[in-house]
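Hello K.,

You asked for the raw outputs rather than the summary table, so here they are, unedited. I folded two proteins back to back in the same session to keep the settings identical. This is the first:
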Amino acid sequence: MRHRMNVYFPPELVKQIADLADRKKLSRSAIVEAAVASFLSPDGADRREAAFARRLDRLSRQVQRLERNLGIGIETLALVVRFWLTITPPLPPDAQTSAQVKGRQRYEGFVEALGRRLQKGQSLLREIPEDIDSHGPLTADTPESEPSDQPGRSEER
């Protein structure tokens, strides 16, 4: 046996219910009954919780990937600076002007090369295996990161 219940809805909601009922070829009462049953169903809360859990898991993985990529970027920059400071001798005052000009030229070349790599979709992060953490972190104190292990460098200064 069914009981009658009078409820009041805003006109926009009534229109949405009527449109859905017409599309599904169901009565308005059936649409409202299904909506209320879904709202009151204990499974509804479980489904919402599962959806939130999936979203949080996805966000957690994205944050972990960002942390990994940021760590790689910071370590790469630190290694380059350390290497550069280790192998670059101080310049005499009379050679600094020409060194600054040469430095600007090299920097422009670097920016152009970076732009080409980015346009091609190339990325250092894609070249680094995802399982790098399983080998243990490399620190600036480990032999693998010493400047002497770095590839050769142009003698042009």
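The second followed immediately with the same parameters:
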Amino acid sequence: MTDRITTYIYAEDPISKAGAVGQLRTRPEIQLLADGELDQAQVAVVVTDTVDEETLRVLRALQRGGVPRTVLVSAVLDEAAVVAAAEAGVSGLLRRTDASPDRLVEVIRRVAGGEGEVPSDLLPGCSTRSVDCSVRCSRPVGWCSRASTSVRPLCSGWSPTGATLPRSPMSWPTASEPSRTCCTT
């Protein structure tokens, strides 16, 4: 078995935190950390209802605190939330409705490995819109320059703490082949 991914869970309320901890507690790939062990985290998972200023403040504080990679699990995600989260240093995004134990572990593993994860329906240009389809490390075809500039670092494993993270071997999509390189199922 490979090393367990040290993971810190933050939620805006105790019920959400208990739910996320309950989903990950028995997973052999994950080692959950207590509040006082934040400095040992490889990945922090932030669970919230919406991506608001308080959520962005928490995400920035985690980055400043030395957590190299973050996953944001939110009930409401839209294109504006993706851009704001990317600007706050988030490496992976997941909707709460999609956050099954297996899916959450999958996103944590990818993020810990230096990859990014964004729901495909939030990236224009993806032809597949299924719930299981997600974009990993690919340029959002057709996005405005601000969105592309914000999401490209997220998808390439960038961290605002200055750490150099490995890039994914996936290639950037071309406008003629977004479904092959942009979305996978």
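Residues 5-181 form a domain with the Rossmann fold fold (CATH 3.40.50.2300).

Happy to rerun anything if the numbers look odd on your end.

Regards,
P.
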